Amino acid sequence: MSEIKNLAPKAIWHNFYLLTQVPRPSGHLEKIQKFLLDWAKERNIEAFQDKAGNIIMRKPATPGMEDRKIVTMQGHMDMVPQKAKDSKHDFLNDPIETWIDGEWVKTKGTTLGADDGMAVAAIMAVMEDDTIPHGPIEGFITADEETTMYGVDHMDTDTLTGEILLNLDDETEGEMIIGSAGGVNQTARMEYQEVDVDPEDAAVSVNIHGLLGGHSGLEINLGRANANKLMARLVQDAIANYAARLATWYGGNMRNAIPNEAEVVLTLPKENVEAFKEECVAEWRDTFKAEYGFVEEKLDVEVFDHELPSKLVPEEIQDNLVDAIYGCHNGVFRFIPETPHIVETSSNLAIIEIGGGKVFFKILIRSSRDSMKECLAETLGSIFSMADLKVELDGDYPAWQPNMKSEIVELMRKIYKELFGNDNNVEVIHAGLECGIIGSKYPKMDMVSFGPTLRSPHTANERCHIPSVDKYWVFLKEILAQTPKK
């Protein structure tokens, strides 16, 4: 449905609507890159794509403001491709279907892409509007932020010209972010020789679903269940008490999303099937609902008869893998001692793939303190090594350390108070923003992050608060109008 393009401020919502029509999941950005370059060319806006796949747009100062500091407006073009279990959406080809529910823009069972389409739409709006006073400006629209931060990690150090960076990737209107966590990807893998199944056994599939999932940084401390961790408890019970054997395990699909679903295929003696269904599955369903029902209202555990697989995980390897999953830390590891309401270090057991002779565990570790990031990586690596898994780290990115004397932050605090009559909150968050990497390449750049209000990013419940977008737009335009002089 296209009514979102008529929402106010139309300058942003029309462009956001255009973005919903272009597939742009992480790792598949050719269509959105072409769209942005064609869009800029049609409007005679200077634009180019760098070697890392980022799109840069530039616009000269309005007359009389040539002496202002250059402002770089930054956001990322890719979106997390999560969808509801019953959705048939194809993220590589289908547009995002949106609808308006009161004060919120929502979708038909998929991620919305307001993370970070709202930033890209705002950059487009500024670039095409000649009525906004501003100094020299550039738009920096980055590639694959949601997976590896590839765009900023592989950009050249002479790509940007800005002295001020406005990162437009925050998700709560009324706050400004001045620091964020760093992170690293951890992968544990192995190969094994499959063994034959007992042809006298039966097979079942067990599915844990209906979980909220969510952002593995911003929402890691909200008490949400991890489908892989729940499944480990059930599978261990099935092996110990019902003579079950593991054939396959698939849970989660994005490192930075809390896994909201997991499915295993088990074999077990035929005489144990009914007891497994009526005792094991039923008891764990009740246990999980008792533990998480207040948060996970739609949590469910289902079991179905399944075609007997031909191969299984060897018993010793199976037991080691289940022990490693059970023992793997997931969630908050430590809060910041000086500010104990903010998460310092966490991990997300995001993806498990077991089957066909291969094993992959994929985890995202976050921390605002490098030593604790290393500590947690070593902690998890020790567990996986004991299960004979090969452990690798990649995609390491630094934390963004706060600048308590930031000129742009102080100016923005003043502007916000003048515009809206109240103070905005200055925060450090437990999420990975590109500012850490950008700051390492441009150490003199003054940086701040803000944006409209989004909720449940990285899930099929992602939504954008309509009134907050108007305040976001008014605020951004006034910041550009009052940019400090060089």
UniProtKB/TrEMBL annotation:
GO terms for biological process: proteolysis. Pfam families: M20_dimer, Peptidase_M20. Keywords: Cobalt, Hydrolase, Metal-binding, Metalloprotease, Protease, Zinc. InterPro entries: Peptidase_M20, Peptidase_M20_dimer, Peptidase_M20C. Its cofactor is Zn(2+); Co(2+). Residues 210-291 form the Peptidase M20 dimerisation domain. Its EC number is 3.4.13.18. It catalyses: Hydrolysis of dipeptides, preferentially hydrophobic dipeptides including prolyl amino acids. GO terms for molecular function: metal ion binding; metallodipeptidase activity. One of its GO terms (cellular component) is cytosol. It is an enzyme of class 3 (hydrolase). Belongs to the peptidase M20C family. This is Cytosol non-specific dipeptidase.
